[in-house]
Automatic annotation (TrEMBL):
It comes from Nocardia arthritidis. Gene3D superfamilies: 1.50.10.20. Residues 1-27 form the signal peptide. This is Fructose-bisphosphate aldolase. Keywords: Signal. PANTHER family: MEIOTICALLY UP-REGULATED GENE 191 PROTEIN.
Amino acid sequence: MDRPNRRVSRRSVLMAAGASVVLTAMAQPTEAAMITRRISADPEDAGQRAALAERAIVRRHVRTLWGRPRTRLGLLVWPASLLDLAFVRWCYWWQAHLLDCAVDAACRAHTPEHLDRVVAIARGIRTRNLAGWTNEYYDDMAWLVLALERADRLLGVRFGDAIGDLRSALIAGWNPAAGAVPWRSGDDFYNTPAIGPAGIAMARLGELPRAGQLADFLHTRLRDTDSGLILDGIHEPGGRIDRTVHTYSQGVTIGLETELAMRTGESDHRGRAAALVRATAHRLTDAGVIAAASGNDSGLFMGILARYLAESALALGDTTAANIVHASARAAWAHRAEVDGLPLFGVDWSRAVTPPKDPGTFPPATPANLSRDLSVQLSGWMLLEADYRLTAAGY
């Protein structure tokens, strides 16, 4: 049998080189950034600080999706490359938290602009996801249904069958043998970042028995008895535990126990929430400030913990939880950098964001480079909205 000619021609080499140059150019940031240490006057009002954090993300990250009217998504990095501007990458669960923060902002300032943004981001998620509202990751879907449920309950903004579709998907993923939902469809890993938000969602959607089972799973299977903290996850069958401790794992567990304490009146859930807040304060804060994360997905971890600490403070009167949020908000704001007078947060709220030496650049492996991530900025925004809610409630 004759074989095709495998020689590489000069033309193919040149074409490949040209394509490489084009792709490299597309992957580079398309705009310069003038980052400075903070220079503007500090607003005293917590709501004003939250509004500035919101404005920073809207200006730097939020864009129309594919030119479609009334759709928005968040660019994963800023400055963005041409590939990012085209939303080749988009990250479902980051967008769910962008939507949740937009709901926070609309609750703080109930204006047509804020409501329109909530609608546009939800429409953007549905459009970019292509195949409906669901995907194969139960943590992703739990985060989105939480944001959509809050938009419905707090703002009266509904999106057809979205909540029902996501609720059905979470219930369909339930494994009776394990008594929980896994991280991903068909996976054997049952982790806190999926079980926690799924449990909160089920509690809010009226599935209290399932929510209670998920809370018990976390408390009995993934709670480290020495530290009192919640571990990352467990493989079933087999029982092999991943003992990594994440800040947001504590946050979603506090959130789940808080929901159940409110909805069932059972003292066990109140006690579990309070104990986990104390353990978090002892082991995952520095001078009361939530421990640092990194970029990429972990950029969201601090803000998620802050959100559910605030929920526990507001619902259960936990002053330790409120104090952590306030201390973290003061630190994040004091250590911010600025771009055109708007805040740029770091991955460590207890340390100042260091601007790059050369204006308009983000050198690799620096705190400023990690601040490019939407996840890191969403954490800062989420924190300041939580701080505002507590302040407005008198905490």
